[in-house]
Design brief:
Elements lengths: L1 H15 L3 H17 L7 H7 L5 H16 L3 E3 L5 E3 L4 E11 L2 E6 L9 E4 L11 E6 L11 E8 L4 E8 L4 E5 L8 E3 L11 E9 L8 E10 L3 H11 L8 H9 L6 H5 L2 E2 L4 E6 L8 E7 L5 E8 L1 H4 L5 H9 L3 E2 L4 E2 L4 H7 L7 E11 L5 E12 L2 E4 H10 L5 H20 L10 E5 L5 E6 L4 H24 L8 E3 L5 H13 L12 H12 L5 H11 L4 E3 L23 H14 L8 H35 L5 E8 L3 E6 L5 E5 L8 E4 L4 E4 L5 E3 L3 E10 L4 E6 L11 E2 L1
């Protein structure tokens, strides 16, 4: 069959197509097209149409050239005379990052297997959703964009099958419009599966079916949250969107409640007794889970003994229990604008483990002997029992220092002086001073924002921070030095910044009038600190701090004993917050194991727990940001209608992001709404340029804006330039 066709083709070639250079050029075009559309089959007519070949000679040459390519083994032909590329593809696994409705990127599990992330068109996603684990066929030739492209062959693991959204009901059917920005499909729901949900209510919907030919998935409502826009409903929506638990499992709660409160004489005897040493806790005014305390006493040799005592959570939470399983699953407490979703049940977090005043408490401690210049001359790590003399709110302790009066003001003052010296030593060694702006809301009893304020960091906050950092550092170094880093342990690491990203950030800072030298790798920390000092209290402070953090590597948990760039520590861990962080529990367990003479366990299972904890940490941060953004949108919807001063915090081809200086809320001006000119995006310089007026809108520009719309569902604020008054301002609409 094949030979017959080839003979037939040879005759046709003889009489109708001359070949030569034109043939070679046409062959290159056809081969490039088929390779770029790897896995697709086309007949000769379709190829002519796709390549837009119009002259008769080249049209007639397509089929002969195809057969030449078949003979050369570069193109495959099936029995129906359809042709396709014969190149061998690569196959990889990865995670979907669904950028927009048109395409997604696959982030490969093995970074070495392919050059960068893989672009997948929506039609080739095989109904994969954001976060899904997939198997991908990588096309052998890069696409028109110059990127590696591919096609999803199989969904290995769904990231989620439950979504939060708003119900839209029509006479015959209903859809749920998901809140999640990376879910680009509405979910069809049969009216009988609405669970009584009404139009415009928020619900949780579970995917039940998605047939290959269906444009949208089908689901059923499994929980009705309530009317969209209400505070409790929106917070529950955020919790559900990020997969945060609504309640603690009954079995774990029962385990917690069954733990006896009384501390046995045997347990006390096994610990260093600090109950007669002055000890206190310093926490936010509304805190209930006190997981760290500081003890203080003067030694006969004139030195000071400072103990950092941490709640001994792993004394109560044992491996292979329901409590342990749930703590691991949550991995961190989550702090939303109006509530805490704790890692441990209240009986432990606010009761047994919380270092409340005037109660004996079990702790794990790092105790330092220091001279008056804050030099550590000795230290001890082990289990202790304490009896806190005083519980301070940050404000109370700061007032004691400021007024030089009140309980233990002299001890607090001396601790503050030591902390300042420790801090200076840290920065002298290259630590970076990131003082991020933290926005807090004043809420009424219904959760409505009455106002917002920027949380101020005072000396007392830095005092606690320095002693916690010191304890974390010494615990990490203690384990590392035992066997030169070969013992399995949980470290908190932070890679050095990528110089290209830092160069880009330096360019951004320059637009705000700040010079930053990033050419000397050894002096990057000093350059960053100089910039952070310069921007303190200035309108651009928050924008530049956020941009600086984005240009840095992300800190993570790992068993690899690498260093921490931001803190300038060769080794660092998290030891001081086991009530709210699972990695700290892991550290306590390993520390106890080694102190009792145990051998190093295999690292793989601990590394998997580290990866899980890092992922959960990111989820918590995303949820916390979403709850703040929700309140910012709600606050701006209620705010006075006026013009606001702002700073351009981001520029994209579709819009300009502006941070309002007064409220620290960020909104967007859409390019499509900027009708005073036609603006083109200059990606290299992160700016928009008016084609007629040559007006430039650049990152860092100070502008006046007004709010024209807020959307609580999507947590967005729409702005317009206030000076653009040639057209009448659109009505201010909110939902």
């Amino acid at each position: 069959m094949g030979r017959k066709s080839d003979r037939k083709h040879s005759k046709k070639n003889k009489g109708g197509y001359s070949g030569g250079n034109d043939s070679a050029s046409l062959a290159r075009r056809i081969l490039q097209f088929l390779d770029s559309n790897f896995g697709q089959e086309y007949n000769a007519k379709q190829i002519i149409k796709q390549l837009d070949i119009r002259d008769a000679l080249n049209k007639g040459g397509v089929e002969p050239v195809l057969y030449q390519l078949v003979d050369a083994g570069k193109v495959s032909r099936n029995a129906r005379n359809y042709f396709s590329s014969t190149k061998d593809p690569d196959f990889i696994t990865g995670t979907v990052d669904f950028v927009n409705p048109r395409f997604a990127f696959i982030v490969p599990d093995d970074k070495e297997a392919v050059d960068g992330d893989i672009l997948i068109k929506e039609a080739d996603l095989k109904q994969a959703l954001d976060g899904d684990k997939v198997r991908v066929m990588v096309f052998p030739v890069k696409g028109k964009t110059g990127r590696t492209e591919g096609r999803v062959l199989e969904i290995l693991e769904r990231s989620r099958d439950e979504f939060v959204g708003r119900v839209e009901i029509s006479p015959r059917f209903a859809f749920v419009v998901p809140d999640f920005k990376k879910m680009h499909k509405d979910i069809f729901v049969h009216r009988g599966d609405l669970m009584g949900a009404e139009h415009n209510e928020k619900v949780i919907v579970k995917l039940t079916e998605w047939r290959e030919d269906d444009k949208n998935p089908t689901g059923k409502v499994i929980r009705v949250l309530g009317k969209a826009g209400l505070h409790e409903v929106e917070i529950h929506s955020i919790m559900a969107e990020f997969g945060l638990p609504f309640e603690y499992p009954k079995e774990a709660d029962e385990e917690a409640n069954a733990i006896p409160e009384k501390i046995s004489a045997k347990e006390i005897k096994a610990r260093k007794d600090f109950r007669d040493v002055l000890t206190f806790t310093i926490d936010p005014v509304d805190a209930k889970d006190f997981d760290d305390a500081i003890s203080y006493r003067e030694l006969e040799n004139g030195n000071l003994e400072i103990g950092v005592h941490i709640a001994d959570v792993t004394h109560y939470v044992k491996p292979k229990t329901a409590l342990e399983k749930e703590a691991f699953n949550r991995a961190t407490s989550v702090y939303l604008v109006d509530r805490t979703i704790p890692m441990l049940p209240e009986r432990l977090s606010n009761g047994l483990c919380s270092l409340r005043p005037n109660e004996d408490k079990l702790t794990f401690a790092c105790v330092f002997e220091m001279d008056r210049n804050a030099k550590v001359v000795n230290h001890w790590i082990g289990r202790t029992i304490i009896h806190s003399n005083r519980r301070y709110a940050y404000e109370e302790a700061q007032e004691c220092i400021d007024t030089q009066s009140g309980d233990y003001f002299q001890e607090l003052t001396l601790l503050n002086e030591l902390a300042k010296k420790i801090r200076k030593q840290r920065f002298d060694k290259g630590a970076v001073n990131f003082e991020t702006v933290e926005v807090k809301f004043k809420l009424d009893e219904k959760g409505t924002p009455l106002g917002l304020f920027v949380k101020e960091r005072k000396d007392i906050h830095k005092l606690i921070e320095e002693f916690m950092l010191l304890a974390n550092k010494y615990v990490a170094e203690f384990i590392y030095k035992k066997n030169n880093g070969t013992d399995t342990f949980v470290y908190r690491t932070h890679d050095s910044p990528d110089l290209d990203r830092l160069e880009t950030f330096s360019g951004f800072a320059k637009r705000f009038g700040h010079q930053m030298d990033v050419t000397n790798v050894q002096k990057i920390s000093a350059a960053l600190n100089k910039l952070m000092d310069e921007i303190q209290g200035k309108p651009e402070q928050n924008v530049l701090e956020q941009l600086a953090i984005r240009s840095m590597a992300k800190a993570k948990y790992t068993t690899e004993p690498k260093g921490h760039f931001g803190l300038a520590f060769p080794h660092y861990t998290h030891f001081t917050s086991p009530i709210r962080r699972y990695p700290d529990m892991m550290v306590h367990r390993l520390l106890e194991h080694y102190l009792e003479g145990g051998k190093s366990p295999e690292a793989e299972s601990w590394e998997q727990k580290c990866v899980h904890s890092s992922e959960r940490e990111k989820r918590a941060a995303d949820a916390e940001r979403a709850s703040i953004k929700y309140k910012q949108v709600e606050y701006m919807s209620l705010a006075e209608q006026k013009d606001y001063e702002g700073i351009v915090s981001g520029v994209t081809e579709w819009g300009v992001f502006v941070e309002i200086t007064e409220t620290k809320c960020e909104g967007m001006i859409r390019v499509q709404d900027m009708d005073d000119d036609y603006y083109e995006f200059d990606e290299r310089n992160m700016r928009l340029i008016g084609t007629r007026s040559k007006k430039m809108i650049t990152l860092g520009d100070k502008v006046m804006v007004r709010v024209v719309n807020t959307d609580i569902d999507r947590r967005t604020i729409d702005l317009e330039f206030a000076e653009n008054d040639r057209k009448k301002s659109r009505p201010r609409a909110f939902n």
